[in-house]
Design a protein that fits this description.
The protein has a five-stranded mixed sheet with strand order 3-2-1-9-4, with helices on one face. A four-stranded mixed sheet has the order 5-6-7-8. The longest helix is centred in the middle third of the chain and has 16 residues. It is built from four helices and nine strands. The chain has about 230 residues and is an alpha+beta fold. Helix content is about 20%, strand content about 25%.
Amino acid sequence: MRRGRRAVAVVCGAVALAVPLVAGGGGTARAAGSCNVTTGPYQRQVEQFLGRPADGVQSAADCQAIKAFQAKHGITPTAGYAGALTWQTMSTMLAQRAAGTNPNKDGTCPVNLGRIACVDLTRQLSWVQDGATLAYGPVPVRTGKDGTETRTGLKRIYHRSIDHWSTIYDVSMPYAQFFDGGIAFHSVEKSMWNPPGSGGCVNMRPADAKAYWNLLAKGDDVYVYGRKPGT
């Protein structure tokens, strides 16, 4: 354990795992420095998302636009191919946008418990409710990957560590708020759409993790539901 930091054993981490260098739909994957000119199985949908001419046929310009999106969010191989993982990431973004300012429209997250942090794994969204009032969010989050999924159910914050250090993964976990064993809200310096996900924790952008730190307290409820795409 490093001096000057509080640490407890945790099961979640912020280290991304590499995705194998493959491309679905019969396309040929290329190295990260090249561009795959093969038309992908989600070509038209990806073109529409990126504001490209949606003709469903890969072009050099399409490839560069897709490649830039992949590079921004750490999607590998970063070769400009419109494959399943790229479209899954975009689909999640679209679902998040559709949530607007009423993420609990379906009433799944209980609002009769006072202040509660809601985590929707399906849409990879989180927000804080004060009863029926939306107190913060919704904001994108990055939850557990396949095999280390963020567990669902009603939880409660039991430990907080503003400058936490994971002794298991040897990584910083600022604004850590633990609510289920070693699973915590905490900030990371990476895209919220970076696949495949965390080791179980609910990763947040630094500003959002700080806001949660200021809004929540030990003993506050956390409700996790849904299922993350790809798990």
